[in-house]
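call fold target=Fasciclin-like arabinogalactan 11
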Amino acid sequence: MMGQRQHVVLLIFSAFLLFQTSNAHNVTRLLAKHPSLSTFNHYLTLTHLAPEINRRTTITVLALDNAAMSSLLDKNPSIYTIKNILSLHVLLDYFGAKKLHQIRNGTALAATMFQATGVATGVSGFVNITDFKGGKVGFGAEDNGGSLNSFFVKSVEELPYNISVIQISKALPSVVAEAPTPGPSELNITGIMSAHGCKVFADTLLANPEAMGTYEDNVNGGLTVFCPMDDPFKAFLPKYKNLTASKKASFLEFFGVPVYQSLSMLKSNSGLMNTLATDGASKFDFTVQNEGEEVTLKTRVNTAKITGTLIDEQPVAIYTIDKVLMPKELFKAALSPAPAPAPEEAADAPKGSKSKTKSKSKTKSKAAPTPDSDSPAESPDDDPADQVADDDNAAMCFGAERLAVVGLSFLLVFFLL
């Protein structure tokens, strides 16, 4: 009896470990074992495609050897065009060597990471895979007139139904993927915002040289912008106009983050995020929270929800939000007064602690505001449901994790009895 229970416990542990490691793979480590693919591996890192591949499961990488990469690089494409081309070589499905030779009806159409970026138009983000007689397998970009001009060479690495790395004979030609792609410094970020429902915010940003300069300084190194839609920002403009010049700049910078955050990153990571306005003691931060597909940004004043993506292409991402997110440094939370505690309770209650985060340094320094200019303005009385402290949410998450661990421990003890 005891042996059976121990066997069950081992099975539970094995299943638990399998669950923990089932999506763990590192494409650059897999490719590092194969020197003939070193250039391809290098550009997966340089274009930041490697982290995107590692975050996904059920994926196939069509690797190119050094000779094939040399032919591609001879055309002197920009690094951003190279990223588009290589993302066309990442299939969002699993194709091991065995599956390639067992394709139903001999042909399959696979979506790629290029198609998932939203840059590809029509069928340009799809790859045709055809199993010919005699074991030959051809690959071709769907926007290339159906021409299958690249062929399966060998299986490089396979972690079944998770990631497959296979070598193909040459790069897949695609007019759309190979089109010249502007670098981030050439992107007109305010133009993108203006054309997609954030014109009022974009015009306000353009009218503030200090804030606009901060955005431009961060474009090449990585920038994520959360722009409020026109209607809520129009309604907010009277409050914005009452701010001092320095507060206006900080307020506008508050909607930018000095690192690139893809939507998948935001959906998988919660926590405190510094902004372009963060500078030493002036935190100007907010908390990212996600539940399923919904991502919200929260301060101690109010909460805004991400409603759309305008661009999500390393190193720049711009998202729309449904409200004007307000920093606690400039606006007071409209909190209802809490009942006064009994004298003995007040004496025993621990004092709240504020968590400190290390803010990213900026190239320019801000003058320290005077005590008068630091006093927050009154916030609007709407959104009372948004007044939730960040510490409470962190405690809830931590409690849920502890509950899961305790539950697993009880289950193990039960089988050991």
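return ok
Confidence is low (pLDDT under 50) at residues 12-22, 335-375, 377-403, 412-417. The domain at 23-168 is CATH 2.30.180.10 (FAS1 domain).
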